[in-house]
Every structure is written in C-alpha cells, then in structure tokens.
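---------- Forwarded message ----------

FYI, see the Protein-disulfide isomerase record below. Original note from H. follows.
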Amino acid sequence: MTRSTRIGVVSGLIAGALVLIVTAVFIIRANVPSAPTAATAASSSPTGAVTPTRVLGPPGKGAVTVVEFLDFECEACAAFYPYVEELRQKYKGDVTFGFRYFPLPGHGNSRTSAAAVEAAAQQNKVEDMYQRMYETQKEWGERGTDSQAERFRGYAEDLGLNMSQYDRDVTSKAVLERIQRDVDLGTTLGVNSTPTFFINGELVPLQTYTDLEAAVADAVQETR
C-alpha cells in the first residue's frame, strides 16, 4: 500500500467517525425533553381547574375568576397589591378574585405569614389579614430567618381574633397542609415565581400591571 493510499484510508476512517459522532449527538439531543416553562405547563391544565384556595370578598356573579399565586414576603407581590385592589373595586360583583399560597424558599417568613393568614381565615378574617400583611411588609419582610410570628400574632389580636383558636390553628397540621397543597399545585402548573396569575384556569403572561388589567378586561368582555 502506497503512502498516498494509506493517507486516503485514514482520512476516510476519520470522516466516517465524525459522521457517526455528529449523528449520535443529534439523536441524543432529540430525545432529551426540554424543561417546561410556566406557560407550557399551565396550558395543559383544563380551563377553570385553577380555583382559589381563598376568595377575597364576595364571589363575583360573572364567569371570570382571577387566582393569584402569591408570597406575602415577595416585594413584587406587594407592588401589585394596590393594583389588584383597584381591579377588585372596578369589577366588584362581577369578577371573583382569590389567591393560593406560594411561599418562596428564599424568604424566611413566607410560610409563617401564610400560616398567619390561613389561621385568620379560620375565623373569617382572611381579607383583613391579607391586607395587613401587604400594608406592613416593609416592617417585617426580608428579615432572613428572624421569625416574625409574634408580630403576626399581634396583627391577629388587633383584628379581634380568638387568640386561643389562632394559636392552635397557626401551627396546625390542617393549615400547614393546606399551604403545601397550594405549593404542590403551583409547582405542577409550572409556577416558579410570584406573583403568578391565572384567569379562568389560563396563565396570564405578565410583565407589568397593565398586562393583568388587559387580561381581566378581555376575559370579562368574552363572557358578555
């Protein structure tokens, strides 16, 4: 075998090997599922499946339900809070507004605040405690692992709750499991940040408040 022939054979073998490697890479990549985003995960849920764990105010008589996955220690949620209140007033009696708990792991008092709100809900004071949490967030938020449970207990006293019942409920298995069920549902739906809104079971692509305002208006218009 001449030198030129040997070079040709080696070159052919190398080229063949490269083809096999490239082909294998494409096959592997084609079979690796991409990570679901919130939008794609939510789109697989049936319309109307995302109901609120707690309703704010009387339910609306219309066919539109807005559900927010929220974290009471989340600054973005607190920033959206006054706008959500405006929408509640604007569509009072027509649209149902509610929420589900979605405490984020990076916030030391997310679950503690959620438990306080849910304990208040056991005494029909969910809306009052919900509002108190957001209106005072700057006083207790971002404190790391420094528990604000006593502060929240003070809120409960201010609202006139039965404190013996509150103390039982705030650490009860039923309350903690209810919060976890909301987290589990949110995770299943692809929720990974707060606030995340669903309208009639459909995820709202959200960048600013006006996106939410427009989505609610569109949903109301569609039901008329």
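H. also flagged this: Residues 42-222 form a domain with the Glutaredoxin fold (CATH 3.40.30.10).
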